[in-house]
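Complex 325.
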Amino acid sequence: MIQYDILFARHPANPILSAKDWPYSINSVFNAGATLLPDKSTLLLCRVEDRRGHSHLCAARSVNGVDGWQIDGKPSLPADPEKYPEELWGIEDPRITFVPELQKYAIAYTSYSRGGPGVSLALTKDFRAYERFGVIMPPDDKDAALLPRRINGFWALIHRPMTPLGAHIWISYSPDLRHWGSHKLMLEARRGAWWDANKIGMSPPPIETPRGWLMIYHGVRRTPSSSIYRLGLALFDLEQPEKCLVRGDSWMFAPEADYERHGDVQDVVFPCGYTVDADGDTINLYYGAADSSIALAHGSIRCLLAWLDANGHSEQAHDRRQRQT
Ligand code: BMA
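Predicted structure with beta-D-mannopyranose bound:
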């Protein structure tokens, strides 16, 4: 008998996209950014790894977001190391945010440079032409997304720099999307035996709800044989997003299905995007499975918030408990 809440139900057609669906030769496709287009069709900007091991981004479009994908016949956003040397070893893990003020989609992605992964930014209106900003957060940094609107007049970027103390989630602010500062720690990896000890990162861009920014984040548990990538939830203040209101104790989604447990990298579920249905509640989460394919799971924003209330604590309460134990 299952004794835990199922917040995301896997689609029976999973995995919905894999290398065999691709119109050109690739190794694998996973970790896709997602958005709805003006005609309400779904666009996935997929991380595609070629048979050198380098990644590029390729757009796939579908009317129902499940099947009938129209996949670009060649890389939609290839790495361009001639102009952007930081893209030498490819570009990975895009997160898409539609920005109403700009009437453009912002794509934050990982550039794999000689110095490690950094965060790059591009804008697009149609996922055909892209305006590249280059690196906005130098290595070692990744797992980034732009918030869809300014906070107190400034653009806000969530990202995950590596520090000697661990891999924690930060937020930074900018007047123009190019110059970034006011860096603030947003969510810390826990320590010890926790499922999200030592290394966490934002997964898809946060979901704006009336109660706050709802974030799905990944926690990496290192085991003697490998790592397990699982997903948890946290809620942040709408106008002061570095302030965590509630954080879930346990993970709420983890590798269980065969396509999540086995592949190029075992035991990985890694969502970079979602769409929300017209009801404003149903969330369609697109996630990379075992760095080998793209899978889909459905949830409810209302249920995610209710689960946090029942299974979460404020960060202050958490700090207190850490001190007591
Ligand atoms: C992370 C990222 C993801 C990848 C995951 C598991 O660090 O690089 O792109 O899916 O590792 O390999």
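The radius of gyration is 18 Å.
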